[in-house]
Amino acid sequence: MSENIYLPRMATIQSMRPETIDVTTFRVTIDGSDGTGKFEYKSGQFAEVSVLGVGEAPISITSSPTRPEAIEFSIRRVGELTNALHELEPLDKIGIRGPFGNFFPLEEMEGQNLLIIGGGIGLAPLRSVILNVFDNRAKYGKIDIIYGARSPQDLVFTSEYKEWQAVDNTRLHLTVDRGDEEWKGNVGLVPTFLREINPSPENTISITCGPPIMIKFVIEALNELGFSSEHIITTLERRMKCGVGKCGRCNIGSKYVCLDGPVFTLKQLEEMPSD
Amino acid sequence: MVDQTKSRIIEKNRLTELLDKLAQDYHLIAPVRDNNVSFRRVESGSEVTLDYINTVLSPKNAFFPQTETLFRFSRDDSRGFRTEPGAEADREQVIFGIRPCDARSLRLMDMVFNGQYKDSYYLDRREKTTLIGLACFDPAETCFCPTFGIDPASGEDVDILLSDIGDRYLVEASTEKGAALLDRFAEFFAELRGDEEQLREARKAGLAGMKKLDVSAIADKMAPLYEGDYWDSIGMKCLGCGICTYLCPTCHCFDIADVSLDEGGERFRCWDSCMFPEFTLMASGENPRPNRKARVQQRFFHKFKYFHDRNGELACVGCGRCLRYCPVNIDITQIIEDVTSGKAGNE
Lengths: 275, 347
Hints:
The complex is a heterodimer of chains A (275) and B (347).
Chain A: E1 9-18, E2 23-30, E3 46-51, E4 55-60, E5 71-76, H1 80-87, E6 93-100, E7 113-119, H2 123-135, E8 143-149, H3 161-165, E9 170-176, E10 186-187, H4 190-197, E11 204-209, H5 212-225, E12 232-235, E13 251-252, E14 255-256, H6 257-260, E15 263-265, H7 266-270
Parallel strand pairs in A: 7-8, 7-11, 8-9, 9-10, 11-12
Antiparallel strand pairs in A: 1-2, 1-6, 2-5, 3-4, 3-6, 12-15, 13-14
Chain B: E1 7-11, H1 15-25, E2 27-33, E3 37-42, E4 67-75, E5 81-85, E6 93-98, H2 100-113, H3 120-127, E7 129-134, E8 160-164, E9 168-173, H4 176-184, H5 196-203, H6 218-222, H7 230-237, H8 243-247, E10 254-260, E11 264-271, H9 292-311, H10 321-325, H11 332-341
Parallel strand pairs in B: 2-6, 6-7, 7-8
Antiparallel strand pairs in B: 1-9, 2-3, 4-5, 4-11, 8-9, 10-11
Helix pairs in contact in B: 7-9
């Protein structure tokens, strides 16, 4: 029998870092290797993550391939599989298939300014890009990261912000929908905040990920700011099972999100049916 | 034309004996009469019936079982699991009595299960299977395979084709695999008598009135219908039962799930249907196809546009099962006519 595309590789959870009340970052290594083993991925790809006996779900990779010691997944507790994942402990085993899907065009982005816009857990796939470009800082222009969540308690990767802000020519703009007594930053929705920051579209590529409603209004704002549809890149979420274009559920028109995505430019999305 | 070198005949009264032999040497799957007529594993020729127009289900189950173990797992001594792949394909199998439409559907399924990622479960079974087809001379009212360029009397997509020409079957091998099987069981086959072509042509008369729709431009004609109201009326009618997708020989969608037992379990896949709301429902609660209209639309766009965009073929073989068994008479041939005539765009 040839290679079995449905058989996961076993991996070990090395650590679990709580990000928010319902988001945890799992740091895992592939068994039989020092770290990522032969799991060679690019920023923007996803993996099918298993808890054997419970099931499998597509999860975006939040670590950067420039840091091969481990693979990281930031996972919100929202369904059956993600609930089971949150019940696990370090040194427990999970299954990994992949990496699958396409990736952010980091090579085409070289020499450009980057505008990275995230909402909620949507920062997870974007963090892979953020760390990747930080590790190749000289190749890119100015980096602006705009990130928002419902409340200060819902912001993810807060332990890393100091480090991000210290990177050359990089700015992190934070906002929350509702503040609290301690919150000194901006209060307001991401698309509104984006308009206030008013970034120039000149030599700039924007990448966005977040809840569908946020993506919709971010795209509207980017259009108003003069970004062309080739320079607006987003990553989509669909229900998936196989991850390899066979089980038939993640298509948008004739594109399978698992094979042809999850990363699409706005120009590509405009050519696809609207479901 | 009958190829004299590769063609033989078999007398009707020797067929049961041939099937007995095939059942000894192969995993033989053939039509059996139960409440309907179904493809089943048979042990002897006497179980087989050839009195059917087509089976309720195509033999896709023999390549892509309705439920199939992908792998088993068990807890090991540490905190991990051991996994072992599901059963390898069984020994060499013969499918006897497949119709040309269903044989074509396998060629379409190959496009899905092959490609960048190879589905070894399906492909191994395909590799280990010899298809013995049965030409159609008495199609059903619901049949429209010529629409898709299928000749119901042709052996294009099988290894061997049998044509019932009265007192005997004309037996033609169209692949090396088929020719090898004819050689192996040579004792059952006789030389042509010379009137076979003539007899077959006479039988083909029954195919003359078959429905043949013009689908040459259907993929292009589907595109503008994405936004229209046409699918509302079909979505209103649809009960969402999914029978069309289960009976369709080209439908390949599946679900993957786990069964957990005490110290292990298995991961399996089973047929799934784009007609079900859960098919696309995400854990977040978002559902990109939230209503029947969207799901019906997906089914027909997949068949007549998306599959074509990806693979250059339409994902229908005109077997007529969906229109025969749809409880509310949604008629795929009517939809084709509405789309190609432009009527669908005017609604």
